[in-house]
Design a protein that fits this description.
There is one protein chain. The protein is α+β, with helices and mostly antiparallel strands. The chain has one domain: PF0523-like (2-Layer Sandwich). A 4-stranded antiparallel β-sheet has the order 2-3-1-4, with helices on both faces. 34% of the residues are buried.
Length: 165
C-alpha cells in the first residue's frame, strides 16, 4: 500500500461533482482542508489508524477515504468531519492518495493536471487558532508545551479518538 500527499489549490464549482470525481479512482483519494492539517505525520497517523479500524471492523464510515478524514480531524460525526473537506470556491487542500503503486500514480497524474501545487501545510496564526478549535487544544495546554509541540498535541487527539471512539 502506497501513500502520497498532494498539497495545492483548486477551485471547486460543485462539491458533489468534485467528490464524485475523487471516487472514480481505484486508489482512495480524500481531499482535506489544509486548515486542519499540521503535518504529513498527522496524515500518516490518521491513515494508519483508519486502516487499523477497517482491519478490526471498528470503522465508523463505510468508505476508507471518509474514515481517513474522520481520523485526520479526530471526529466521530461524519457531518462534522465534512466541514473540513471541500467547499465551493477556492480551496487549499491536502489530497490523501492511498492504494497500489499504479493506482496512486493514475490518481496523482490526473489530480496534478488541475491542482495548482502549493505548500499548504505552513503554520500561521490563523491555522494555529483553527487547529486549537478543531482539536480542542487550550491556550494553557499549548502554553505549557510550546508551539513547537502543536503537531504532537494534534496527533495525541487522533490517538485518543482511536482509543475512545
Amino acid at each position: 500500500m502506497r501513500l502520497e500527499v498532494l498539497e495545492g489549490v483548486v477551485e471547486v464549482k460543485s462539491v458533489r461533482n468534485f467528490v464524485e470525481m475523487c471516487k472514480k479512482f481505484r486508489a482512495t483519494v480524500q481531499p482535506i482542508s489544509s486548515q486542519v492539517v499540521v503535518s504529513i505525520r498527522q496524515i500518516e497517523v490518521a491513515v494508519r489508524k483508519a486502516l487499523e479500524a477497517f482491519e478490526k471492523k471498528e470503522n465508523v464510515s463505510r468508505e476508507l477515504g471518509m474514515e481517513i478524514l474522520l481520523y485526520t480531524v479526530a471526529k466521530r460525526n461524519i457531518s462534522k468531519a465534512l466541514e473540513y473537506g471541500v467547499k465551493e470556491g477556492i480551496n487549499e487542500l491536502v489530497f490523501v492518495i492511498l492504494g497500489e503503486d499504479n493506482e496512486v500514480e493514475e490518481a496523482l497524474s490526473f489530480l496534478k493536471s488541475f491542482v495548482k501545487e502549493k505548500k499548504t501545510l505552513r503554520i500561521d496564526e490563523g491555522k494555529i487558532n483553527k487547529l486549537k478549535e478543531v482539536f480542542e487544544i487550550t491556550d494553557e495546554e499549548l502554553g505549557a508545551v510550546g508551539i513547537e509541540k502543536l503537531e504532537d498535541l494534534v496527533i495525541e487527539r487522533i490517538t485518543l479518538f482511536h482509543v475512545f471512539k
